[in-house]
Amino acid sequence: MARREELSRFLKSVRARLDPGDLGLPAGGRRRVAGLRREEVALLSGMSVTWYTWFEQGREVKPSAPMLERLCKALKLTQEEREYLFALAQHRPPPLALAPDEMIRPAAQQMLDSLTLPAVIITEYWAVIGWNDIVTRIFRDYASYSEADRNLFKILVLGDAYREDEQTFRDMVRRLTARLKWDYSRAANAEFFEGLIEEMSEKSEMFREYWALPDVVAHFEGVHSLDVEGVGPIAFHHTSYALEEVPGQRLVIYTPNDPESAKKLKKLTK
C-alpha cells in the first residue's frame, strides 16, 4: 500500500510541474490545479483516461514496459525518474534507455587515464567510446578506426589478433556470442542487434554455429593471451563493471592473469 501511495504522489507531482503550452496543448481555460490534467497525460501517452486515472490512484493495474515508456516520455521524466517509476510500478529496473548515451563523461576519461592497467569503456551496443594510452600501446589504436568500426564484438570475432590458437579463439567467440545474446535480450534498440547478427552470420561461420546454441552469459569476463611486441605473450583477465552514472555503459579492465604477465605489463608501462 505504501508503494502504491508513493507512486500516486509521484505521478501527481510530475504532471503538476508541466506546462501545457510547452507540450502543444491549449493553455487557456480554467484550471483548478497547476500542470497537466489526467486526460491530457492519457492523451500524450496513448492510454485511456480511465486506465491512467486508476494507475495514478494506485489501484492494482499492471502496465507493460512500453506503456510505462510512453508515460515517461509524456511526463518528460529524467533518467533517474524513469528508473524510479519502473521500480514503483514493476519492482524492477527499466529496460536500457531508448536513446543510449554514447558520449564518454570527462570524469570517466580521467579515470581511464589514471589507471595503470589497460581499460576501455563500451556501450551496451559494444561501441568503444573511451580507452587509455595503455590500450593503444598493447591492443589497438581505436582512434585509427572510424566510429562506425569501433564495435568491440566485430573487432574481436572478425579480427586476426586472437586466431593463433584455434581452440582458444573458439572458446572466446563462444563466450562473446553468449554475452551478445544477453545484451540483445535487454536492449531497447533491437534493430541494431538484428543488423549486427545478420552481418556476423554472413561473415563468420563460427558465429553462426555458436548463435544457434542455447548458451547465454550475463557477465563480460574471461582470460585471453596476446603476443605483445617487445615482451612476448601476456595473459589478461578481463572483467566489466557498470557505470552507475550512465546506464548502459560499462568499464572493461584488463588485469595480468599471472605473475609473469604482470612483470611484462609493468615493463611496458614504465
Automatic annotation (TrEMBL):
Domain HTH cro/C1-type, residue spans: 31-82
InterPro entries from the UniProt entry: Cro/C1-type_HTH (IPR001387), Lambda_DNA-bd_dom_sf (IPR010982), MLTR_LBD (IPR041413)
Pfam family, one: MLTR_LBD
Coiled coil start-end: none
CDD domains: HTH_XRE
Sample GO molecular function, one term: DNA binding
PANTHER family the UniProt entry points to: BLL4672 PROTEIN-RELATED
Protein name: Helix-turn-helix domain-containing protein
Species assigned in the record: Parasphingopyxis marina
